[in-house]
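User: Show me an example of a complex going from sequences to structure tokens.

Assistant: Sure. Here are the input components:
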Amino acid sequence: MLTIKKVPTVVSNYQENSEKGFEGCGRNCLGKCCLPVSKLPLYAFKEDNSNLIGNSVEKSSEEQPQICFLHNLLLGQWEDRMSRGLFRYDVTACDKKIIPGRYGFIAQLNKGRHLKKRPTEFRVDKVLQDFDETKFNFTKVGQEEVLFRFEKSNDHRRRFFPTAPPVTADSDSSSVVAINVSPIEYGHVLLIPQVLNCLPQKIDHGSFLLALHFAIEAADPFFRVGYNSLGAFATINHLHFQAYYLAASFPVEKAPTRRIMTMKGREDKGVIISQLLNYPVRGLVFEGGNTIQDLSDSVASSCIFLQNNNIPFNCYAEKQARGEAIQELLDTQVNPAVWEISGHIVLKRQEDFDDASETCAWRILAEVSLSNKRFNEVKAHILEAAGFQTETEEKNRDHEGESIHDQPSPKAVAHLPQDCMVFH
Amino acid sequence: MALLLHSVLITLTTGARPPLFADACSSFPLLLLGKSHWTDRDLRWLSLSLVPLIEVDFLSLCLDSKILTKIPHGIGANWQSKVDTEEDFQVSTISMESQLGLIERSFSTRYSPWVREALEELPHNFTISDPTISGHPIVFASPGFLKLSGFPRDQVIGNNGRIFQGPKTNRKTVMEIREAIREERAVQVALWNYRKDGTPFWMLFQLSPVFSKEDGRVIHFIGVQVPILRKKRLTDDGDAAAWNEIVCGSCRREVCSDSLVDLGRVLALDTDTNCRGVEAEEPCEASLINSSLNISLGRIKQSFVLIDPHLPNMPIVYASDAFLKLTGYDRHEVLGCNWRFLSGAGTDSSVLNQIQESIQVEQACTVCFLNYRKDKSTFWNLLHMSPVRNATGKIAYFVGVQMEEKCKSQDRHGLSPEIWQLSAVGAVKVAVRSLSMGASCSNSSDRFNTL
């Protein structure tokens, strides 16, 4: 029977060199030596605290070109790196298909993605681990793998600087978008918040907000920004998010949801939380929010709770087609990572690809999902951490019809894992 | 076309109620074997359960489960004769009234009452069929479709879509459609259909499933028909605006105005022939780009063309608006032309060879050469060509992105010219790769299916 075993992948061309020791800097890396004097382009986003839900969909003609901007920048830069041969393989040459069935799981045959040798070891049973300088981290990445810097604008306006002013040595706000040299799809990038600060793989409010802004700026429901915690397939203990384009609905996005009725906490932040139904993995959906910050904080608080309780998880965010609510997918899962859970499955062998079926995919994912009972326990805690109180489940059932589906279905799914499994 | 599906699906999926016969299939034959006397309801259940078994030899199935011995006299005889003459099963023993009753209930039990009205208002050609009723009949036909096919409504409702097929209809294509229905996924094909007066017409047909909100089962299929005419016609913006109004009116959701202009463009495109110099009797399937891809490509602002390298003269199969603006040509003058058509007397032929070679070895290339507009004026074209693969990883097209050198008036929003060009390449690659996976129109319609 087919099982998914996640093998760590190489995300940077500099990763495998790390054993050789570091040559000082003439290497144009992302460390304190080189980044401050780099000429990387900078995309400065506007921190938007306006009411997301209430915003009308009209876009002024002035705004319109801006919305495509990050899209063009990212795609153009990515294609440029492709033509320079920086990727380990051509991901567009990988066979992929939608598995027939209700959910349409997406299977990809990718023989080049997985490492052949034994990966770098670190404990996979602890979600929070300290940053280890001796292991590979993103300050060692060469600047050619970086597409642009992505930071908050200083003057509340969206700006692009083709050749950015240098980062000052004491400024810790430099975040970058780099390519993933083993892409799962076209446009697969890594968002590394505050790269110089060498943060371990752990969510905090600030970094999550940055990731959410990234999803918003891309303004495309098919551009998803995801996160794997340690123990849930993140293999580099340096804070990073992943993102790529797939112009199709993920199976998890097609799953129905049921809104969790909540009594408002001390302040009503306007965030709506729903539970995923009819999907092999247990999850939660976060959407809405009076401001982006509110939504981001709710999710970040939930993630922090999970981290502190050593529960591995995955999540992703995407901006909905209507330009209103942001959906975030919060999965907690051990074995498959955020993209597998969401329904995009990468397979190594031809026969696995040929035989892929929805039943198969379902079974794989269901195996690693948390039991209902455990999920409910954790869910209650998550909601508390996010500032909500729940009413009892029974009431929910009757009011199923009330679940709002006016907007295209937002998906943020929290899949809860079983005990951590060590993998090779 | 994908957008039309949006609007129909939106209309249908607001206010769904549970389908009537959801459990029929699972309780056959256990339910019926034990009975000595069959009621009308049993017969209905029996027929419904046969729908998924559409290719199975009905006779052998019955014999295996020993049902034939239990069938009331006369009914078995009818069924037997049906097996000999038809591939699918129309259980005519169910009285006409109950069949019509089922069809009526197909809508009324699932959707809110104003759905029919709203659907009637949509200007396009489409049908809605119900796979849970025996024979998979059409339960709704838009006025546009009735006009197109020439059939009166009472000859369409209750019948299967095969009544529009005829001698020229490609059997293999029909099998493709059948398979898609069985696998409950969308499909898009081109095939011959026949009007009531017997005249055939070539059309692009897109079929899409509608899933129930309650249990995720397929409750309807929507079929959209776009006839492909010989005449080359461009739709002006006035028509696009009119469609804008109509589609918006019947949809509860607002639709982004950009996509409606796309729809106008797509429908205009579908009415053009893409083949130059091909016999009128044989429309070229290969050079059609499906409508979803057209819509996605339409969002890309740069000047570019798509070339099909598999066809003998490597024709242009898609041209962006910006390309038409740059070169001064109309779309119908460009589609189907060989990619060299912009070159002229002053063009360096070695560059043309270079491009040809790159296509042959499936490599990207960047060149700069002299091009001629429609008005014979020249410009230096900085062209970037790249292979574009579809979801199977094989090369589907080549994309060529043009940039007029030294063009300062071009608004690139601060991006360098190279990045601006490459981003068009990237956007095309994402579009072609994603949309060619399995069901081509599932991307847009799926988002609404589980509402």
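The lines above are the inputs; the final block is the predicted structure for all two components together. The first strand of chain A starts at residue 42 and ends at 45.
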